Amino acid sequence: MKYCVGYRIEENDNYINKIIELSKGISEVYFAWGDFENGRNSTLSVNGITPWEAQQKQMRDLKRLSEKSIGLNMLFNAMCYGEKSQSRKFFQKIGDTIEFAGSEYNLLSITTTSPLIARFTKENFPETEVRASVNMNIGSIEGMEYVSDVFDSFYLQREQNRNN
After folding, report:
1. Cα distance between residue 136 and residue 157, in whole Å
2. Does the predicted TM-score (pTM) go above 0.85?
3. Which residues are registered as beta bridge partners of 112?
4. Rounded to a whole number, what is the largest CA-CA distance in the chain?
5. Across residues 18-26, what is the average pLDDT?
6. Contacts of 115 (CB under 8 A, 6+ apart)
7. Burial code of 12-28, b = ≥16 C-beta within 10 A, e = fewer?
8. Using 50, 70 and 90 to split pLDDT, how confident is the model at 30?
9. How far is CA 92 from CA 64, 86, 117, in A?
10. Partner of 111 for a Cys bridge, out of 9, 47, 131, 149, CB 3.0 to 4.6 A?
11. Helices vs. strands in the chain: H and E counts, helices first
12. Quick one: angle between helices 51-67 and 88-104, nearest 10?
């Protein structure tokens, strides 16, 4: 069995070193990029370092993972992107980010809660797998069929994802 591991920025390299050490059992690392809303605390919020230092640290860490052939999955996982969710500027930023990450790192896929972001990615980056987030609460074949034109794969809702 292989695991998907969530990336987090830390001041030291212990976490990244452990991922690399255990990489035979890791299929990919998922991460939120920079200041994109992601349904959690800001990706760039780390005690003791500035947001700019955190972004640089994230970039170094992703480069190290890529150099070890560990696949990466970028999250666009917020439940709402607010007033910018349909703006040209927002999609330009998403496109620029995917293009950059795809050229610099081993970016294999994105996971999103947004069918609009999924469609945009499929149309502009066909080599990138597009996954429906667990946060979409899709739990049936019928639910998958409704959005199968914009998603390549699905994370099922949490209730079906866990064995309590």
Report:
1. 7
2. yes
3. 76, 132
4. 47
5. 95
6. 147, 150, 151
7. eeeebeebeeebeebeb
8. very high
9. 27, 11, 11
10. 131
11. 6, 6
12. 40
Instruction: Please give the distance of CA 43 from its chain centroid, rounded to a whole number.
Output: 11
Q: What is the DSSP letter of 155?
A: P
pLDDT in tens, 138-150: 888 998 899 999 9
Write out the two tokens for 71: 């696949």
Four-point Cα dihedral 100, 81, 72, 6, nearest 10: 140
Sign of CA dihedral 76, 80, 81, 85: positive
H or E segment at 67? Answer: helix 51-67
Mean pLDDT across 1-23: 91
Residues 6 or more apart in contact with residue 83 via CB below 8 angstroms: none
Give the separation between CA 14 and CA 98, rounded to whole angstroms: 27
Assigned token pair, 145: 């069929």
Around 11, how many Cα atoms within 13 Å sit in the side-chain half-sphere?
5
